[in-house]
Amino acid sequence: MIPPGFTGGLLDRADNLRHDADGLAAAMGDWRARLLKLDNLQPEVTDDGRLGWTSLADAPDDAELLLLGLGEGRPHFAAFVPGTRVSNAPAMRSPALMAALHSLAPGEAATYAAARSLIDWHARHGFCANCGTATAIFRAGWGRKCPTCAAEHFPRVDPVVIMIAEHDGRALLGRGKGWPPGRYSALAGFLEPGESIEEAVAREIHEEAGVKVSGVRYVASQPWPFPSQLMMACVATAADDAITLDVTELEDAIWVARDEVRAILAGEKGAFIAPPPYAIAFTLLTEWAKG
Amino acid sequence: MIPPGFTGGLLDRADNLRHDADGLAAAMGDWRARLLKLDNLQPEVTDDGRLGWTSLADAPDDAELLLLGLGEGRPHFAAFVPGTRVSNAPAMRSPALMAALHSLAPGEAATYAAARSLIDWHARHGFCANCGTATAIFRAGWGRKCPTCAAEHFPRVDPVVIMIAEHDGRALLGRGKGWPPGRYSALAGFLEPGESIEEAVAREIHEEAGVKVSGVRYVASQPWPFPSQLMMACVATAADDAITLDVTELEDAIWVARDEVRAILAGEKGAFIAPPPYAIAFTLLTEWAKG
Which residue intervals define the domain Nudix hydrolase in the entry (chains A, B) (predicted)? Predict the structure, then answer.
């Protein structure tokens, strides 16, 4: 299998350092330490597909340092400036960002994903959900703690199922409202409390397209940092090919034959435009197209 | 495969009703509607393994109704009383609760899991993480909204990897601190932002036991409602069997041969006590033991 986008990170997350105040202070005082270069959450990408890094001295005075991990013998950090507002609206996923994601080497995209999700989480979780007090960063940026009720909060990861139903050699693809012309992709939705992956897959396909499935098979997973999803890609077997669209969710849904999916992934024009290689829909369709 | 614990829910979640104020009001005004009977988050279980239900009139005056879904032509609700404090400390998972989980029919345990996770989330997320204001319930209990900054908050599900490493026909099991005598189980840990399932599995096994793995295979998943985890069970191949314990995480780790795992799951005494059937460690070990 082609490794899914945003996987293959090269840093050791060094979980033990997060709990080691002296070790963390030493890492912050290490003159070899690297700081991820970000401009409004956009990465800087070098000509050879690497992330741009600078020294910790380039962080703003009021920044808090988030430990991304260790690599090449050096601690690697990202900076979060309290009060920063971030947006994950589609408009923020600009052509420049999309171009950067295309050009980033795989392991580099993984480091960017972790940093982006973490910064975004701090930006939108500055207050205690349990009592409303402003919280403070702890564990080297991998948590926030409430000074009033002592509740500990950890970066959120939202599990999302993304899947195709298959029937008689064809895959079910859907089209969300407002998507670019020609774009169809695997259906997707957030997993809810009290559900397994397999149950969420069946519920979402039924809700969105009115298709009943069984025999859900897990294929692959990837992080998706807009803001912090865990994408879990699956294939399920449909009982029949009748579609009943939920028009609040989808604009259209189509069945596409395996040969046509193969041709489109190989660059030919067809019923839909191939997903970008960093999206797990690309991995999922590629695996399914092998047959 | 034996269906994992807490799966097989019998209710239709009726996502569309959450967005339909009139439909929801009609459901709340339906005299046939059922309210889940809970005592301090403990379920009432009938002699034939069903959950206990009562009418909506039995909800406290200040309760907020959470729509669990539709079943047998009736809307099903749970009640959340604002200000309620809940605890998921091990002490709260009392022998009575464990006995209830053993006796609940599978689909019933799934309904209980969803209700418990949802109530717990409301109890610990009454304030806006973005600005600190007290939030209000919306979407029939499947969200909270901030009256000040308009941020929408949805029930949290934390993805957790749970896994065995295998080497030469033996499985790696670990023992957490303070666990009951004889208990060993699959290793487990929270997945972090910027990780795939496969990467989290490899990281956790390496962090906790010093074992390097590759070839991670997904086996099954289940919800775990203490408070709201998505457990994702995997098997990975270990490069060798040398163990380096992280003593802050584990008290001990052992390799157990497939024959011995089989015998223990069949009720014989051995190197460890079998996990309860509603835990996915049971499903995982049962699948692995098939060889």
Answer: 155-286
